Amino acid sequence: MPHKDPVEAKRYRTSYRAVNLEKIRAREAAYRAAHAGALCARRAAYYAANREALLRQNAAYRASHIDQQHLRASTWRTANREGTRAKHLMRRYGLTVEQYETQLASQDGGCAICGTMEPGGASGRFHVDHRKRDGALRGLLCVRCNPLAASEHLEKHLDAAIAYLRRSAS
Ligand SMILES: [Zn+2]
């Protein structure tokens, strides 16, 4: 035995491992590969024997960290709000944020129909209005004008509707 002193022995093992790390890792990987079936079976047996306790442990961990998880999720959302919006615009409307801003600027910053600067609605942003036929961008609309533009019935009878409203206006 080269080292009877346990402190000395430990120092020897630590430095041996540091010097031969790659060799040791390769040997460990080879062992795991050769015994994959047995190791897997052992883990499965351990899990089966301790299933209830492991599930309880996981549930307890989640319960005691739930606020932390919510906080992390909401922090992430806040930090990535612009990224989330960009993704939404692209996925849903095929628009980049720049295209949206350019369109809004061309409408002088307001709704393309009534001109209000207040988009209204939960998102606080103007709705992206598309032409049904080919999906081309028509404009950005406030929450009250958007349903008007979406109504095919209104589009079909627009002139009659205007005449009717003018005629019957008090
Ligand atoms: Zn409007």
Number of folding domains?
2
| Percent of residues in β-strands | 5-15%
Counting DSSP H or I runs of 4 or more residues, the number of helices is 9
Strand numbers in spatial order across the main sheet: 1-2
Low-confidence stretches: none
- Main sheet attributes: strand count, strand direction, barrel closure: 2 strands, antiparallel
Helix content: 55-70%
Task: Compute the average pLDDT.
Answer: 89
| Bulk shape | elongated
Number of strands: 2
Work out the radius of gyration.
Answer: 33 Å
Along the chain, the helix and strand elements come as HHHHHHEEHHH
Bound molecules: zinc ion
- What structural class results from the helix and strand content? mainly alpha
Give the termini separation.
109 Å
What is the element layout, followed by pairings?
Layout: H1 6-19, H2 21-34, H3 36-64, H4 66-79, H5 81-93, H6 97-106, E1 127-130, E2 137-141, H7 146-150, H8 152-156, H9 158-168
Antiparallel strand pairs: 1-2
The structure holds zinc ion (ZN).
Quick recap of the structure?
The chain has 170 residues and is mostly helical.
What does this structure look like?
The chain has 2 domains: 1-63, no CATH class; 96-155, no CATH class. It has 170 residues and is mainly alpha-helical. It has helices spanning 6-19, 21-34, 36-64, 66-79, 81-93, 97-106, 146-150, 152-156, 158-168, and strands at 127-130, 137-141. It binds zinc ion. Zinc ion binds at residues 111, 113-114, 116, 141-142, 144-145.
